[in-house]
Amino acid sequence: MKLKYYALLSIGLIFSNINSSYADGALMVLPISMSVSDESPHTVTVKNTGDEAMYLKVELQKVLNPGDKNEKKVIVSSLPSPGLIAFPAKLALGPNQSKKLTINPLYSPEKEEVYRLYILPVRNYQVVEETSDKINAPVVFALGYGALIRHTPEVAKQVQDWSARCNGQGMILTNTGNTRVLFSSVQAGNKSAKIDKSIAVFPGTPQQINSTAFTAKVDNKSVIVKCD
Fold it and tell me: Cis peptide before 203, with omega less than 30 degrees from 0?
């Protein structure tokens, strides 16, 4: 099959309101997503909006296959050279109290990396007088949240590019640059095809599209991609 794709100048820009905070019960996290493209520390604010004390476990995980629905993650403490670290690992918040977590970049990546910052309420937490970083059992985790952190190359070195290749199931989208490519307002050319309305393609993680044609917007430009 031959593949054809076109870029059409978009008429105007589309703006959308994106929530910048997350609240679940008594826990509020701000922001829920961020992009880190320099080597300066960034912060995440965590607030206890309830009327009881809250103890939290903080864990940063690297996503090995960003953009895939079934994310594979690994704790950064197990990596020989993680790109980001988060501290402190534990927080204690009184009623209506807020504190900041620090996200510290250790290097500037050649290609975009994706992390999730998990902030988990611990219902049973015991403080012991020792230099241990362990939470003593029994421990029950309440519902927490995984904030998204995109660790990108320096702005001047960012390249956004992509390609498409036809196969027996439709086509494969591949990121040929070094930062995420976001396809929004996606519509399949064949009505029977099931396709997501938004598709993020990250370096190193191609995306299978179960359609031989689709339209979308990339960087506020309309594109048409189809196999002949």
Answer: no
The dihedral through the CA atoms of 31, 33, 38, 41 has a sign that is positive
CB 147 within 8 Å of CB 156: no
148 strand-pairing partners: 33, 116
Q: pLDDT of 47-67, one tens digit each?
A: 998 888 989 999 999 999 999
- Domains of the chain in sequence order: 3-14+157-227 (2.60.40), 22-155 (2.60.40.10)
Residue 44 region by backbone torsions, left for phi larger than 0, else alpha for psi between -120 and 50, else beta: beta
Instruction: Return the amino acid letter for 73.
Output: K
Give pLDDT tens digits for 164-187.
Answer: 999 988 999 999 999 999 999 999
Report which of 192, 191, 224, 196 is spatially closest to residue 209, judged by C-alpha positions. Answer: 196
Q: In residues, how long is the chain?
A: 228
Chain-centroid distance of CA 65 in Å reads 11
